[in-house]
Amino acid sequence: MTTFLIGQIMGVKQQERKKSDGSSQVFTLVNIFNQLQDNEGFPVTVSENVQFPIDHFTTLMGYKGKYIAIPYTSLSTKNGNYMFPNSDMQYLIFDKNPLDLAINKGK
């Protein structure tokens, strides 16, 4: 099943991680933020750091402040449920929060 993480791009930076073999991996780290309300009107805050390949850095930096929908694949196994970004699908960029657009359209 595919679901989407939706939020505003708050930060974009290059990140380096050292591997056990002594080499390092450089990637793009993006902070996604969204504040929603549950069915009772209680605020729900979502903040997630998502890794992208380093060649996405310049593009994502240009989208800072815009909204992104990142496809996630969910997988259920006997050991639990897992979610991870789906690298086979592209993320989508929006000028405004697409969840607000969907809510206002339904009224």
Helix content: 10-25%
Low-confidence segments, ≥5 residues, pLDDT <50? none
Q: Briefly note the structural class of the backbone.
A: mainly beta
Number of helices: 2
**Sheet with the most strands?**
6 strands, antiparallel
What is the CATH architecture descriptor?
A: Beta Barrel
Radius of gyration: 16 Å
Describe the structure.
This protein is mostly beta strands and 107 residues long. It has a single domain (3-16, 26-94), classed as OB fold (Dihydrolipoamide Acetyltransferase, E2P), CATH 2.40.50. The protein has helices at residues 57-62, 98-105; strands spanning 2-18, 24-37, 43-53, 67-77, 80-85, 92-94. Strands 1, 2, 3, 4, 5 and 6 form a 6-stranded antiparallel beta sheet that branches. The radius of gyration is 16 Å and the shape is globular.
Characteristic terms for this protein:
107 residues; single chain; mainly beta; 13% helix; OB fold (Dihydrolipoamide Acetyltransferase, E2P)
Provide a compact summary of the structure.
With 107 residues, this protein is mainly beta.
Secondary-structure map:
Blueprint: E1 2-18, E2 24-37, E3 43-53, H1 57-62, E4 67-77, E5 80-85, E6 92-94, H2 98-105
Antiparallel strand pairs: 1-2, 1-4, 2-3, 4-5, 4-6
